[in-house]
Design a protein that fits this description.
- With 404 residues, the chain is of the alpha/beta class.
- It has three domains: 133 residues, 3-Layer(aba) Sandwich (Rossmann fold); 99 residues, Rossmann fold (3-Layer(aba) Sandwich); 127 residues, Nitrogenase molybdenum iron protein domain (Rossmann fold).
- Helix content is 38%, strand content 15%.
- The protein contains 16 helices and 14 strands.
- Strand 1, helix 2 and strand 2 form a beta-alpha-beta unit.
- Helix 7 runs parallel beside helix 11 and helix 12 crosses helix 13.
- The longest helix is centred in the middle third of the chain and has 16 residues.
- It is globular, with a radius of gyration of 21 Å.
- The model has no long low-confidence stretch (mean pLDDT 89).
């Protein structure tokens, strides 16, 4: 049994559904008790205060579950969706629907017949990791609303997996998007963080099949990338570029080239063994930056969500920034992470600030919020990770302000 004494459990599947679909103008209905979506909107979805609420709970009462008032549930959703003029409705499962065996797929078919918009369900149970819920949501959305493009867009690129639970505020990935455009590529879709000024949030999804290549920047985008390769023949690059070396390698892979040899580090940091805790794709991006930009000889990654799918190998993957080391592990166990962090050989840690509570000794700690862990607590913390901005932030942390 998982025990949490000083940290928080990570967000689960239907939180991932909410994060993946929030920006697309739909209505996400969490099939749970009254107030079932409140903890998503208030804690894990900081954007809720900045726009119209799109995540609601089914509002189930005890008698609704006992008597099976399905028709009332369906009519309520149809009325709300049409009244709010949503572009689609998504039904997300919870432990309640899993325990009582709710036929959400049947609900979706019935609801689509009564509403004037597309309806689909995402089979979450509330116990799976949040990237699994987000992955299922992306696949369901693509199956319902993505259509083949008439022709390919030269140098068109999609960015997949940009959910706030993994990548934070939209501004955090903007340096990466700008770097892609400066390199001569055209951004067709950024899923699921449409850039400011995009009037139709589904525009990027509709344009996505015209891309020449996808860029997967979190585990949540991997399943969609595999689907788009099978359906549209679009290969993908795997990795989130952190720092200068990460930027150069990433852009080379997007161009279909292999990265060149790493230049010598001109100013190595005074650390010998770093530990990076968090989402694995970002974690391996930080690892590459610490090794190749700052010369840290050993950098281990602790993935708090499953990462095995990143290393299976696929003909759809045309290049990766991820290099698994012998000491890299997958665990969300508070006790295991605490033991790794308090290893006397570790002299630098990069992780969400919540993990500082596990330390029993003095060590260099670089704060890199993981929203799936700390929710809104560190949403506004000043930090960076993408490309040049990530190099500047990590350099300032390793050497001191203005010294990176």
């Amino acid at each position: 049994m998982k025990k949490y004494h000083k940290t928080l459990p990570l967000a689960t599947g239907y939180f991932g559904v909410s994060s993946a679909l929030y920006a697309f103008g739909g209505l996400v209905v969490v099939y749970g008790p009254a107030g079932g979506a409140w903890h998503i909107n208030i804690e894990d979805e900081p954007r809720w205060y900045r726009g119209p609420a799109t995540v609601v709970g089914a509002g189930l009462l005890e008698m609704d579950v006992i008597l099976g008032n399905d028709d009332k549930f369906i009519e309520n959703i149809a009325r709300v969706a049409n009244g709010l003029k949503r572009d689609f409705v998504c039904l997300a499962g919870t432990p309640i629907s899993e325990i009582i065996g709710t036929d959400l797929k049947g609900f979706a078919r019935t609801l689509e017949g009564r509403a004037s918009i597309p309806v689909f369900m995402v089979p979450t149970a509330g116990s799976e990791p949040y990237p699994e819920g987000a992955s299922k949501a992306f696949l369901a959305l693509a199956d319902k609303l993505m259509a083949p493009a008439a022709s390919k867009h030269p140098k068109g690129v999609n960015v997949l997996g940009a959910i706030h639970l993994s990548t934070g505020r939209e501004e955090r990935i903007e340096p990466l998007l700008a770097a892609i455009e400066r390199a001569g590529f055209t951004l067709l879709g950024v899923l699921s963080s449409p850039r400011p000024g995009v009037a139709d949030p589904l525009e990027g999804l509709r344009r996505a099949p015209a891309a020449e290549r996808n860029a997967v920047i979190s585990t949540s985008g991997l399943a969609l990338a595999e689907h788009m390769y099978a359906a549209y023949g679009i290969p993908y690059v795997l990795g989130l570029p952190v720092g200068l070396r990460g930027r150069d390698d990433f852009l080379a892979l997007l161009r279909g080239e292999q990265p060149g040899p790493a230049p010598a580090v001109t100013r190595p940091a005074a650390f010998r063994h770093a530990l990076v805790v968090g989402e694995p794709v970002l974690g391996y991006g930080v690892q590459r930056c610490l090794r190749h930009d700052f010369g840290v000889p050993r950098v281990d990654v602790v993935s708090v969500v499953p990462s095995e799918m990143l290393f299976k190998g696929s003909e759809a993957c045309s290049g990766t920034l991820i290099e698994r080391g012998p000491a890299d592990v997958d665990t969300e166990s508070e006790q295991d992470i605490a033991a790794l962090m308090n290893d006397p050989d570790v002299d630098c840690i990069v992780a969400d600030p919540c993990y500082q509570a596990l330390l029993t000794r003095e060590v260099k700690f670089i704060r890199l919020p993981h929203i799936a862990m700390s929710a809104r607590m560190y949403w506004d913390l000043p930090y960076e990770y993408a490309v040049d901005k990530g190099h500047e932030y990590l350099g300032a942390q390793l050497f001191g302000p203005g010294q990176g």
